[in-house]
Write a structure and sequence with these properties.
The structure is a single chain. The protein contains ten helices and five strands. It has about 230 residues and is an alpha/beta fold.
Length: about 230
């Protein structure tokens, strides 16, 4: 497995694909394919088996949301991570993309440094976007009657401490903030988060935030928890 991820860029704007490709190539990251719509993206993933797909949400024909669902619901044992590309940081489709399995989102006007950093984090399972931004998206768009690929999970498999960590994670706390809140080392916090993801069969913390809301562990509008005494 290479140190840097292999990437597919899917966007209906050639300038976006070219610009992102040049930035990634300049930083030693291999762009293995480009796609101008969702069907091409699905085909590119099957052909090249990338580690990461940068997927535009709004494309003609099969859009990025449907393409993400098909890619991540397939039979591949190690499907790629998907980062959604959007023009607006509160695009209503981003929440549906997260529930479909996307690992986060990037604005199309992202800085080159942020783009490269996000791509390099693609396979770590850590935040591909700030936890607070994920929380803001979920708070705005989570709805019990919204038809989406909901991430229903049985939280009874978690220990009481893991439930508390998940609740705080869902409230938007980073690993450093979780460590300070629970008076633990960051290494211990990472262990708790890894166990939560494994037990709930989640790809990363972005999905964990969605689960925290969809199970009612965290409710929209709830602030971050107070620090433990």
């Amino acid at each position: 497995m290479s140190e840097l991820p292999r990437v597919v860029i899917a966007d209906d704007q050639a300038l976006v694909r070219t610009g992102f490709g040049l930035i990634l190539a300049a930083n030693g990251i291999d762009v293995v394919a480009e796609a101008s719509d969702g069907d091409e993206a699905i085909d590119a993933v099957h052909r090249t088996r990338p580690d990461l797909v940068l997927m535009d949400i709004r494309m003609p024909g099969t859009d990025g949301l449907e393409a993400t669902r098909r890619i991540l619901s397939g039979t591949e044992p190690y499907p790629p991570r998907v980062i959604m590309l959007t023009t607006f940081d509160l695009d209503r489709y981003v929440y549906a993309a997260l529930t479909a399995g996307a690992s986060g989102f990037l604005l199309k006007d992202v800085t080159p440094e942020h783009l490269v950093a996000a791509v390099r984090l693609a396979r770590t399972g850590d935040a591909l976007l700030a936890p607070a931004i994920t929380r803001r998206l979920v708070e705005r768009f989570v709805s019990r009657d919204t038809p989406a690929a909901a991430l229903h999970r049985d939280l009874s498999v978690l220990t009481p401490r893991e439930l508390e960590v998940l609740r705080s994670l869902g409230s938007g706390l980073s690993n450093a903030e979780l460590a300070a809140h629970f008076r633990l080392s960051e290494a211990t916090v990472k262990t708790h988060v890894a166990r939560i993801l494994a037990k709930l069969r989640l790809r990363d913390r972005a999905q964990a935030v969605v689960v925290a809301y969809e199970t009612g562990l965290v409710t929209p509008g709830a602030g971050a928890p107070a620090a433990e005494p």
